[in-house]
Amino acid sequence: MAASPRDVAQALIRGITQERWTELPGLYAEDTVVELPFSPSARVMRGRKEIAEHFAGAPARPLRLSAKNIVVHETTDPEVVVVEYDYDGEVTTNGRTFTSPNVIVMRVRDGRIVSSRDYHDHRGILAALDG
Asked: 69 and 86 in contact (C-beta within 8 Å)?
């Protein structure tokens, strides 16, 4: 039996906070679409290959993240969950800390993320990096 949307959402957050960058693309379908509407570039990633490239760049980012206040809301659509959580972050190069709110609206089919709209406070994270 495939992992539930709740399980996949929790595995994504756990994988990010545990820096399991090479494992994370396996949570996504081959033809996934991930939108980051709050990113300064309003980025859209298409396909598992782009997701893998995104996560491959993560070790170069001087960030350490932990997640708290995680709430997974199940919806009337059995494929869709809404996940709310906060990152407590530390910039490893300057010691600056920050808290970043996050909301993800995720569609999971057959245990893989087929689409996601990720609302992260990218500007707040960038400000901490530049600080």
From this structure: yes
Closest Cα to residue 119, out of 46, 42, 65?
42
* Domains of the chain in sequence order: 5-130 (3.10.450.50)
Least confident piece of the model among 27-31, 40-44, 49-53, 87-91: 40-44
- For residues 9 and 28, the answer to whether their CB atoms sit within 8 Å is no
pLDDT at 131 over 70: no
pLDDT digits (tens, 9 = 90+) for 25-34: 999 999 999 9
Residues 66, 88 contacting (CB under 8 angstroms): yes
- Of 22, 14, 43, 26, nearest in space to 112 by CA: 26
- Which residue is associated with the tokens 């995104």? 54
